[in-house]
């Protein structure tokens, strides 16, 4: 019996593109204040999932600790990742500040929720050394 071919569900198709883009994002609270508890992390995840859906992206994973959150995002190539990040941070900040005002004020975070910087790393696919070797070994036109 021959093995069945299973399509890769992460590979998406558009009109003129086939893509499989993932990014690992890390957002840190302003002054690395320990503001998150389990309830607030759950709400942050809900808000960020909604933002991703509006961008036609998918949040594959979410987790965090008191002072930061991690996201694994699957996104289409038409999305500028910086615009998605700005929206994720801006929208979540507005909702969390409105819904957890007392907690945030007690911790003394001022008027800004997230630190201005963030981490992003590309994820998935073959290791860079394999991709580099593949490209180097392609035939050049004669």
From TrEMBL:
InterPro entries: Transposase_17, Transposase_17_sf. GO terms for molecular function: DNA binding; transposase activity. GO terms for biological process: DNA transposition. Signal peptide: none annotated. Pfam families: Y1_Tnp (PF01797). Residues 18-138 form the Transposase IS200-like domain. This is IS200/IS605 family transposase. It comes from Streptomyces finlayi. The lineage of its organism: Bacteria, Bacillati, Actinomycetota, Actinomycetes, Kitasatosporales.
């Amino acid at each position: 019996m021959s093995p069945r071919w299973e399509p890769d569900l992460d590979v998406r198709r558009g009109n003129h593109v086939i893509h499989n883009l993932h990014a690992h994002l890390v957002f840190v609270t302003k002054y690395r204040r320990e503001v998150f508890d389990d309830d607030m992390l759950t709400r942050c995840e809900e808000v960020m999932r909604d933002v991703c859906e509006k961008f036609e992206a998918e949040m594959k994973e979410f987790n965090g600790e008191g002072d930061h959150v991690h996201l694994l995002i699957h996104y289409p190539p038409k999305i500028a990742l910086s615009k998605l990040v700005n929206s994720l941070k801006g929208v979540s900040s507005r909702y969390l500040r409105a819904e957890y005002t007392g907690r945030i004020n007690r911790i003394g975070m001022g008027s800004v929720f997230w630190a201005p910087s963030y981490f992003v790393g590309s994820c998935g696919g073959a290791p860079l050394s394999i991709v580099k070797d593949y490209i180097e070994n392609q035939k050049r036109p004669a």
